[in-house]
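#structure-requests
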Amino acid sequence: MLGQNRPISRVIEARRPHRRIVKALALDAKFQDEARFLKSWFDKPLMTGAVYPSGKALARMMARYVDPSVPGPVVELGPGTGPVTEALIARGIAEERLVLIEFNPDFCKLLKKRFPKARVIEGDAYGIGATLHDLKEPACAVVSSLPLFTRPEQQRLRLLREAFALSCENAPFIQFTYATVSPMPLKTHDFSADKSPRVWLNLPPARVWVYRDRAVSYAQAAE
């Protein structure tokens, strides 16, 4: 029994200094969002993915690919504490157009307080088709901060195709990553993929990938 308990005790000991860091950050108003992310990451690292919220430069890069003149809701997956949401509003997206899907209940409460006119849904972003079954009009963009590399390829592709099914023609699926390769496998040919320059001012540096559905253009070409 003593041998079996040792790994558990080591895990507990390893988490103690991290929790002290979280508490220290939470005492400073400037770092409260960082503290929230760290706590979420320590509790569920595969669900949160990032240790820190997206920086302003990365958030602006993601928002740049959303055209405010195109009608329809903007769906954000995994908004966390809202840095990309703020960038979307600064880009010219009315808060009323935002649909925010977040699994963390604490983040949901914070998002409702910060963006009272947006629709905040506590739910599964990976099951976007079911989560947004009542979406009244096609989305003009889907903006994702989900940790896609923690999920199998088929699940990532299913998410992308469900997002396309809920979106208007040529709507972008916008995803950031710290990796040097595309979060969506590029061996399939039913969507296009473009990437931004690397955002070096983010911690850690990141890149934005933009995917668009090719199914419509294929169908038109066949007519």
